[in-house]
Design goal:
Blueprint (H helix, E strand, L loop, with lengths): L5 E5 L8 E6 L2 E7 L31 H13 L1 E4 L7 E4 L2 H23 L9 H7 L1 H9 L6 H6 L28 H9 L7 E2 L5 E3 L7 E10 L2 E8 L4 E2 L7 E4 L11
Parallel strand pairs: 3-7, 6-10
Antiparallel strand pairs: 1-9, 2-3, 2-11, 4-5, 8-9
Helix pairs in contact: 1-2, 2-4
């Protein structure tokens, strides 16, 4: 049975800045959006191991039909999250389930063809099933940043989707690859990763911190009431990320940092 869950979004003036709080069904869930930081620690050398740097040093062939097909598909199939209840501003994000459905098309041919396009001069050095299960988000981020060939390094060092998102305010994680021709590789990777790293909302969620750039999968809002100290909205979470309770009398609140005090669901 398919459920479409709706929750309430409310603004008020007496919440702690950056705090996210869910209340309902006998539990209280608190989240906090971490304070933003403009500090960037730069790249630190990563360990390649005895095999040395990647064999494929050529730039990604974005004009390849299979790479162009994927990039075009990703643009057309992105979802758009509400960023601020006080404006109509939205930001694109891509659900993992949607990516996996694309990769599974034609019995996995889409993913295999994309790997061949990324490694045109040799057999792909990675297993497509492993990419599907453990590196789908990282592979998408690399393709969109023109660095698809580095999926070999992520997979050989077991730096998988489970570690996402990386914190752009921290040094790169161990074994993050280095591209000597692009000193901003890590910075650009982190900038692109948010599109593929929307968080699931599931219980229990207590004192969880989200980076200010994290895209929350809130796909619609509807103003219910307003006046006094705030506004009341009804919002909907994207179904792929809604692991809360089935539709009921659950009431959720969210307060977003750096905006007028706002409670979201």
């Amino acid at each position: 049975m398919h459920f479409t869950s709706y929750y309430t979004l409310e603004s008020c003036s007496n919440r702690i800045p950056g705090q996210v709080c869910f209340v309902g069904l006998g539990y209280s869930i608190g989240l906090r959006k971490r304070q933003d930081s403009t500090a960037y620690h730069g790249l630190e050398p990563a360990t390649w191991g005895s095999e040395g740097p990647p064999h494929d040093t050529m730039a990604q062939h974005d004009e390849h039909p299979d790479i162009r097909a994927f990039l075009g598909w990703a643009r057309r199939n992105s979802q758009y999250a509400v960023l601020d209840p006080n404006t109509e501003e939205r930001c694109a994000f891509m659900p993992l389930k949607t990516v996996q459905e694309y990769f599974k098309q034609d019995d996995g041919a889409r993913l295999n063809e994309l790997l061949v396009a990324v490694f045109p001069n040799r057999d792909p050095p990675v297993d497509s099933d492993d990419i599907f299960d453990n590196y789908a988000q990282i592979f998408c981020i690399l393709i969109e940043t023109g660095k698809g060939r580095f999926i070999e390094n992520f997979s050989s060092w077991n730096v998988g989707d489970r570690l996402l998102p990386f914190d752009p305010d921290d040094p790169p994680p161990a074994h993050f690859p280095i591209d000597t021709g692009d000193p901003k590789f890590y910075e650009n990777f982190c900038s692109k990763q948010w599109k593929f790293c929307a968080p699931e909302f599931r219980t229990p969620m207590t004192n969880i911190q989200f980076h200010p750039q994290r895209i929350l999968p809130i796909v619609s809002k509807e103003k219910i009431a307003g006046g006094g100290n705030g506004m009341l909205y009804k919002i909907r979470l994207h179904s792929s990320y809604n692991k809360l309770c089935p539709p009921s009398t659950v009431r959720t609140h969210y307060q977003k940092l750096n905006f007028p005090t706002v409670l979201w669901s």
